Amino acid sequence: SWNSFHFRKNYDYFLLPPLLFFVLFLFFFFFYLKDLGHLRVQQLIHLIKDKDGIDDYLAKNIKGLSKQEAAANRNSYKKNICIDMLRQGYHKSFSELFTLIQKWNALREAAGPGSAIWQRESLEEQPDKLDQLYHFLTGAEAAQRAGHYEEMYDNQLNLAYCFNDPEDKWLSNYFYEQCFNTAQLVKIDGGKREAQAHANMGLICEEQGHVMKAAEHFEAFYQLTEGLTWKDETGHTYNSLACEHLWRIYTLLADKMLENKEHQQAIKTLIKALKMAKEGGDMKMEGEAAYCLSLAYNFAGEQQTALSVSLGKVAETTEYLGEFMKAAENAHLSQSLVDACVLLGNIYNERGKYNEAFEYFSRASEAAKTLNNLPLVEETKTYYGIAKAHKLMVAFNSRIEAEDPVSLKYLLAWKENRSDMCTDPLTVDNIYQ
Asked: What are the TM regions of this chain, as residue ranges (predicted)?
């Protein structure tokens, strides 16, 4: 028994060192793992704080992914486009894009919640538009560096065309203005792009209510295209378009002058409008221009001149006067109705169509009574009386020219009762009784 005890004791002593070594190994291994985990956490925290570190980490741990590709997957679409512009050296394009995004945001903030622009996505959140801006802005900048201003203009014009939706009108106008500035530098197309730029700027100014400024642009457009055969995509010559724009803008200017009682200045402006309408070769436009000028002369108290102008384009003028008269009647604009009826009456009276003249002067007289304007009522009564006399004169002269007993007795009977000869109930049998 003593021997067995002594053996177990020696055996235990023999096993003790390896056991202690194993315990120490486990102890140190535990602390190693703890330190390693702490280091790993610290590394991840560092990566989160350092975006470049994230890119490096992704590039090292994802096979085939570069640092730039990692950044592209993390960044917004706008930021990737901006970075690409800067990497390729398009600093002007980057600055312009950034400015446009800022302007959009400023417009949105100014409009406030509930506005249409507030409900829409920001410009930087619309990839399609960002693509267009990237492509044509960098194209314009590259052309500018090479001195190819016609290509620069074309890129800017394409951008103006891209943003033709009503909500993007400000962007379209911005690029039309850029086109206008660039067009002054183009020297190889005979002034075609400059003319086009003036036309676009004229339309913008007209839309914004700057009529005088619009007239200046359209006049420049006309001068640059006079005698040339340039055409737009619809087949119209640039010069005919210039004539149409000038006719329209001169008419608008004249309207404002008439409102301010500047009759003579309005007449001068409408004469220019009529000249443009004739050069434009549009009969409808020419007839309307003649009518407007006649109306201005009538307002100025120069009825004879108004009549001579109107008679130059009788069919067109009477057509537009008729439309104007119907519109005035429907809108209960008595003064305008009187003006239109008097002009139509004068036209028919001058042409010897006394029945029609009598009808229009009669309507003018009725409309004048609703205005409580005694001088106007008296004036229209005078027209009415003259037209009635002319109407009666036709039947009277036909009896005189007949030179027969029946006509003579008819005239005597009429003289006694002074009835309307055109509707006189007397018959030949009554006369002989």
From this structure: 13-33
